[in-house]
Amino acid sequence: MALSKRALVDLYRRRARRYDWTARLYWLIGFAYDRYRHLAVDALALDPGDTVVDIGCGTGLNFHSIEERIGPTGRLIGVDLTEAMLERARERVETEGWTNVDLVHSDAAEFTFPENVDGVLSTAAITLVPEYDAVIQRAAEALAPGGRISIFDFKEPEGAPEWFVRFMVAITRPFGVSRDLAIRHPWESVACYLPEHAMVNLYGGFAYVMVGRKPEAVPASDPPH
């Protein structure tokens, strides 16, 4: 059964201090968690000076990759439901001396996206949001022309052996994953709102990176003489 938002906050409050190293334990079974997150950031095709929103930013594990691309003239907005996770993100920001990061304590369903953002990112988070479709729709509307949404998350693989599905659900359950979340398809929402899109399956189809791009603005035609 999918966890309520209150239960998710309680779960991640307990896990916040140890979240970084526990998430990285997945490499023991060949699940390249860090590499998949980097793939999602790469898919945004960011440039120096860009503005990026990281939805469900947690402790800020994506921040290094984003900062390397946007530089000090860019802007990074991290949004998370759990204050304890954001506190770890604040520690990361202070340690690195980044001055272009804004951290927002908010439910993704209630967050107001700034206009003309260059990228919206979510890694292992958006599927936990019941209102994921509305969030993705608002994110797509907020993108600047040429801007992108990139999602790395989990899904139930088609045609996979039942033992594999049960195993993967069991080992991701400590992070709020349950099998009934399989009915949520954020990649379909990206495809709906951003017709320019591409998807790659990872780890036997149990995970994926989906990227959608907003079309460039079409120049207005010159008026007839």
N→C terminal distance: 65 Å
The coarse overall form would be: globular
Binned strand content: 15-25%
Q: Low-confidence stretches at least 5 residues in length (pLDDT < 50)?
A: none
DSSP strand count = 7
Helix content: 25-40%
H-E order: HHHEHEHEEHEHHEE
Q: Assign the CATH architecture.
A: 3-Layer(aba) Sandwich
Please state how the strands of the largest beta sheet are arranged side by side. 3-2-1-4-5-7-6
CATH superfamily: Vaccinia Virus protein VP39
What's the domain count? 1
Please give the count of helices.
8
The helix-and-strand class reads: alpha/beta
CATH topology: Rossmann fold
Brief summary of the model shown:
The chain is built from 8 helices and 7 strands. With 225 residues, it is an alpha/beta fold.
Describe, in plain words, how this protein is organized in 3D.
- The chain is an alpha/beta fold and 225 residues long.
- The protein has one domain (5-213): Rossmann fold (3-Layer(aba) Sandwich), CATH 3.40.50.150.
- The chain has eight helices and seven strands.
- The chain has helices at residues 5-15, 19-23, 33-42, 63-70, 83-96, 132-142, 162-172, 186-193; strands at residues 51-55, 75-80, 101-105, 117-123, 143-154, 196-202, 207-213.
- It has a seven-stranded mixed β-sheet, sandwiched between helices.
- Helix 6 (132-142) links the parallel strand 4 (117-123) and strand 5 (143-154).
- Helix 6 runs parallel beside helix 8.
- The mean pLDDT is 90.
